[in-house]
Amino acid sequence: MRFRASLTALLMTSVPVWAGDVALVVGNEDYANGRDLSAADEMLDAVAPLEEAGFEVLSGSDLTAGALAGLVSELNAKVGGSGRVLIALSGHFGNSLSGSWFVGADADGPDLGAVAAQSVSLGVLMDIAARAPGGAVVALGVEEAEFEFGAGVNSGLGDLDIPQGVSVITGPSGDVADFAKDALGVKGQSIANALNAWPSLTGSGFMAPLVPFLPSDGAAPPVVAKADPDAEQKAFWKVTQDIDTMDAFEAYLKRHPDGLFASEARAEIDKIKAEPLLLAEQGEKALNLSRDRRREIQRALSLLEYDPKGIDGIFGRGSRAAIQKWQNVNGETATGFVTQPQIERLGAQADRRAQELEIEAEKRKIELERKDRAYWRATGQGGDETGLRAYLERYPDGVFAEIATARLEPFEEARRAAAAEQDRAAWDAAESVGSLAAYEGYVQANPEGAFVEQARAKIAELEFEAKNAGALEAAQRNEERLGLNGTTRRLVEDRLESLGLKPGAVDGTFDDDSRRAIRRYQEARNLPRTGFLNQQTLVRLLADSVLR
């Protein structure tokens, strides 16, 4: 799998091998789309003591995946195998069967397909540390707060594949930070012995009690003997393979033009060039699209009637197919991966389409209201019961539906007052049951009853519901699948209110008034008039407020 395109600067230049001690220290505490941590940035307290101990320190806090990649690139370029390496990280970690990752501060619920682009692989960091065997420490500070990942990724550290000669320390963020600050810079002390004073920390990998991490002044750095003179180049090549981009392979060749793996590197470059999809995939990954940005792209596709099969910020098969269809229609190479110019073009088209749809909807609404008002003048405006019921039968959600309903109440009250006791009892019984059979039974038993008109209206309503029960149930299930939260429901009601469709209270609860307003919206836009939201209706309804 080709990923970590943001690390393409890893091998960008041929630099001299760094012979000194180098450290990478990062504390990610504030996450844009996840739970913040409490002690992660304390790791930065170790920077000054490590510098005093002779380390060149690369450091940062609350770093995005791109910024992390830059520091890892710089670290890799400075590690030559003759000095010591310290990698100290605190923040959120994720794991799966394929490895573990240190999460960038801008990560947004990445699943297994996206986690590599929003994180730094601990496997890559272990490979870098392995180039200083016997003098490499990886310290990882964790906290109990979990990060929300997508499918295939779990929160926290998984099983670590620790290379030979690398010491790994894990534990609570604050304690790991104190250990890095107070213990790692002490000369003449081994990692194994130092950990005896820190019961909250766990040491694994290379734990030699007699081998100090920083020897006393004048002592040579501990180096595990290398039988293989090409070990450094092999380790470098392994990192290049992990990054797996054209830039990485080209950088390997720049450093090792006649290296052991030069032919493999050139073959990989030719393979990437021969497969436009790989280039397109790497180009999209380099954009580091957030989950919200992906949702905007999916909304735009849906608005343009390229169904992405969900607006969830995850580019699965449905989204890729929709992107390909859009690219085909617009004269682009149909890769299924977007470029920045394509995103801008898609957004502009969606904006124009949203405006066109609103203009069309307004014209349809005006025409429907014209017919509605004309029928009201011909039937319900006079105020007689027959005319009011005729209006409501044709326009149950019409402009004057509420007025007609209110004007019918006195007729019912008067009829009830005049009705015989037995007739009232029969009608009350029918209403209490509320079924089609109950209302039909009332009409059959009381053909001249005072409530026959109401019964026939109820029969027509229930017959419509029965005839369309399947469609209405499906529409309800489709709305439930959208998983709308209270905020989104209030946005819907507020939009309906701004359109003059009378949704009732803007409170995030879809009551009868809300359903009627949704039906009015759907009818004006020639959408299926169910009163329930689906993806198409939701996108149309919120286009003005979401896509801009």
UniProtKB/TrEMBL annotation:
Peptidoglycan binding-like domain: residues covered: 291-344, 486-541
InterPro entries: Caspase-like_dom_sf, Peptidoglycan-bd-like, PGBD-like_sf, PGBDSf
Annotated Pfam families: PG_binding_1 (PF01471)
Superkingdom to which the source organism belongs: Bacteria
Signal peptide: 1-19
SUPFAM superfamilies with a match to the protein in the record: Caspase-like, PGBD-like
Keywords, comma-separated and alphabetical: Signal
Protein name: Putative peptidoglycan binding protein
Source species of the chain: Litoreibacter meonggei
